[in-house]
Amino acid sequence: MTARDEIAGQPADWFGDMQHFFRGVRGLGKVAVSRHAQARMQADGIPFAAFEKALLEPTRPDVPDGPDVIWRERDGLRIVILTNPTPNVGAVLVKTVFRVERQARGI
Known about the structure:
6 strands, alpha+beta, YaeB-like fold, globular
């Protein structure tokens, strides 16, 4: 069993289908996807295509959430991104991905 199997509790071939590094992402540049984010997508049944679309084609501008954290959203998916990860290897890091529900709005 590999480290990836232990982290996700899933067969290693699931990760083989997922791209874990993106170059030239609009507004971010190079983007790495953490093993935690990959495992979370698998556990929550989030299709890789939906994640990729949310990352590459967000419907709204990025939202800052602290000095080194932003998030992107599209179609009910939120991607949490560390803009200055440690260690910094020249890419931002997708820390986690999860589904969000619309909030009720007052009239």
